[in-house]
Specification:
By secondary structure, the protein is of the alpha+beta class. The protein has one domain: Heat Shock Protein 90 (2-Layer Sandwich). The chain has a five-stranded mixed beta sheet. Strands 1-3 form a two-stranded antiparallel ribbon. Helices cover 55% and strands 15% of the residues. A hairpin with a 2-residue loop joins strand 4 and strand 5. It has seven helices and seven strands; from the N terminus they run αααβααββαββαββ. The longest helix has 62 residues.
C-alpha cells in the first residue's frame, strides 16, 4: 500500500485527530492539576459580630486612654500655679539658709557643727524639690498601669503634697484622718493619685467664696473595703445635678471639661469599687475600694 493511498490518508487523519485530542486532554489535565481555586471562607454572622465587638472594644479602650491622658494634662495645668508655690517655698528656705551661713562665716561665728547643720537643711530641702519635680514627671507620663500593693495614707499624702501651698494660700484648711491599721489596696499609684487630685480640686473649687473653708479626708476599713471620704464645707451640689456629675462632658464650671469625675468613676469601677455622693450644705464623696491581701489582676 502506498503512503498516499486514500485509506492511509484517512487513517492518518484520524490518528491526527486522536493525537490532537490527546494533547488537549493532556493540557487540560495539567492545568486542572496545577490550578487551585481558592474558596472564600464563609463566616457565620456570629463570627462577624464577635470581630466587630472586638474592634469596638479596642477602640473604646484607646479612647478611654486618651481621655485619661487628656485629664492628666488638664489637672497638671490647673496645678501649675500651686506647684510654683510648692517649689518657691523650699527655694526660699535654701536661699535664707545659705545667706545665714555666709554671714556666720564672715563674722567668724560659724562652727563646723553649725555649717553642717545648715548643709543638712539645704540637702533636705533640695530632696523635697526633687520629690515634687519627679512626682510631676511620673504623673505626666503615658504608659500602661503598673499595679502594686499601696498604702492609702502614703498615696493621699503624696497627692496632697503637690498643691498643699496652693490650698494654704487660698485659706483652705486640710485635715487627713486615716486609720493607723488601714490595710493596703492593690492599684496603680498614678491612677489612684489621679482620683485623689481630681476630688481635692473639686472640693477646692467648691470652697471659692465660702467663709468657712475646710477639706477633710478620712479613710477607714469597713466590710472588706477601704472607704475614703472627701468632705468639704462648700456650696453643695443641687439635687438635679447629683445624677449627672459622673457623666461624660458634664460640668457646672465655666471652663470645665466634664472629664474629672467621669474618669474618677471609671478608675474606681475598674478596681471593683464604688463611688457615692452625699450633699447638702457641703459635699461628701466616698469611694470604696476592695482590700487586697495579695496581688491579683485588675
Amino acid at each position: 500500500m502506498r503512503w498516499g493511498s486514500p485509506i492511509f490518508r484517512i487513517n492518518s487523519y484520524e490518528q491526527k485527530n486522536q493525537l490532537h485530542e490527546a494533547k488537549e486532554n493532556a493540557v487540560f489535565s495539567k492545568g486542572f492539576q496545577t490550578v487551585k481555586i481558592s474558596q472564600p471562607k464563609i463566616q457565620s454572622p456570629a463570627d462577624d459580630n464577635e470581630a466587630r465587638l472586638d474592634r469596638l472594644q479596642q477602640q473604646i479602650e484607646r479612647q478611654n486612654a486618651l481621655l485619661l491622658q487628656s485629664q492628666k494634662m488638664k489637672t497638671l495645668g490647673v496645678m501649675a500655679s500651686g506647684l510654683a508655690h510648692e517649689i518657691m517655698q523650699p527655694l526660699q528656705i535654701i536661699l535664707a539658709t545659705a545667706q545665714n551661713c555666709r554671714l556666720d562665716v564672715e563674722r567668724q561665728k560659724a562652727t563646723p557643727s553649725m555649717i553642717l547643720e545648715d548643709l543638712d537643711s539645704i540637702a533636705s530641702t533640695v530632696k523635697r524639690i526633687d520629690h515634687i519635680v519627679n512626682h510631676l514627671y511620673v504623673l505626666s507620663k503615658e504608659g500602661k498601669p503598673r499595679y502594686e500593693i499601696l498604702s492609702v495614707k502614703t498615696v493621699l499624702e503624696d497627692a496632697l503634697a503637690m498643691f498643699r501651698e496652693q490650698l494654704k494660700n487660698r485659706g483652705i484648711q486640710v485635715k487627713i484622718d486615716t486609720d493607723p491599721n488601714l490595710p493596703p489596696v492593690y492599684a496603680d499609684k498614678v491612677e489612684l493619685e489621679q482620683v485623689i487630685i481630681n476630688l481635692i480640686n473639686n472640693a477646692r473649687d467648691a470652697l471659692e467664696g465660702q467663709p468657712d473653708k475646710r477639706i477633710t479626708i478620712s479613710a477607714s476599713s469597713q466590710n472588706g473595703q477601704i472607704e475614703i471620704c472627701f468632705a468639704d464645707t462648700g456650696c453643695g451640689i443641687p439635687p438635679e445635678n447629683r445624677e449627672k456629675i459622673f457623666g461624660l462632658s458634664f460640668s457646672t464650671k465655666e471652663k470645665g471639661s466634664g472629664l474629672g469625675l467621669y474618669i474618677v468613676q471609671d478608675i474606681v469601677n475598674r478596681y471593683g469599687g464604688t463611688i457615692r455622693v452625699n450633699s447638702s450644705t457641703g459635699t461628701e464623696i466616698i469611694i470604696a475600694l476592695p482590700i487586697q491581701h495579695k496581688e491579683q489582676t485588675v
